Each structure stands twice: as C-alpha cells, then as structure tokens.
Amino acid sequence: MWMTAYFPLPPAENLPILKLALTMDEAIFAEFKVESAMPMNGSEVLGIGRDAIWLTIQLCAPILIVGLVVGVAIGLFQALTQIQEQTLIYAPKIIAIFAALLLFLPMMGALLAGFMHEIATKIAGI
Questions:
Q1: Which residues of 58-83 are buried (b: 16+ CB within 10 A; e: fewer)?
Q2: Confidence (pTM)
C-alpha cells in the first residue's frame, strides 16, 4: 500500500468494519456503513472548522488587500485630479489582482497542501 509511507494505518483491531448488503433488494440501494471504533468529538469538529475558516482568510487576504490598496489609490488619484471616469478603476485593479495571484499562488498552494495533509492525517487516525 503506497499510502502507508505517509499515513500510517491504525492497528487491525481499530479499523472500521464494513457491512455489505446481501439481498437483491438491499443491493439496489446498497450503502457502505462504516462503524468507527473512535468517533470524532465536538471539539475536534470545531477545531477543523476553525482551521478551515482561518485557511480561507489566509487564502483570500492577500488578493483582497491588493484590490483594496489599488482601489483606494485609484480613488485618491481620481479625487485629486477630479477625473470622474467610472471605468478607470477596473483595468488597473484587474492587472494588480492578476499579478497578486501570480505572486501568491505558490503560498496558497502550500497552505492548501498543508491543510489537506493535516486532514488526511486526522482521517487516517480515526
């Protein structure tokens, strides 16, 4: 098994038990039912939810901050020069956000990979 190098499996007595449907009627609507020996408790679920929200903030913040700074800078430029063109803000904002995506995409990928590794480790530990 190639996953054992990264995610060690629990001992055989802690593995989930799979129950399969045997009759024809049950086979049509077959579902795999997993009975886990170690269910997650509420604090673990809340911890994963908190980590997911924090990851979302970390992923969105650089792009939103760049958009905010460029928007304020263009708005200040429009106020100082009294240029009231409504479409002036879009081209610089799109270019700045695209450049920020190119710059921050490796960091975003690393954050997502780390979170996925953490979740997979928790799943393997259940």
A1: ebeebbeebeeebeeebeeeeeeeee
A2: 0.62
Say how far apart CA 45 and CA 58 lie, in whole Å. Answer: 20
Range of the domain at 11: 2-125
Q: How far apart are CA 92 and CA 87, in angstroms?
A: 10
What is the dihedral angle through the alpha carbons of 41, 46, 52, 56, rounded to the nearest 10 degrees? 170
Number of domains in the chain: 1
Neighbours of 31 (CB within 10 A): 9
- In the block, residue with structure tokens 């049509």: 28
CA atoms of 34 and 19, how far apart (whole Å)? 7
pLDDT tens figures, 24-59 = 445 445 454 555 556 778 888 899 999 999 999 999
Residue with tokens 């039912």: 33
The encoded tokens of residue 76 equal 């200040």
What sign does the CA torsion over 84, 86, 91, 96 have? positive
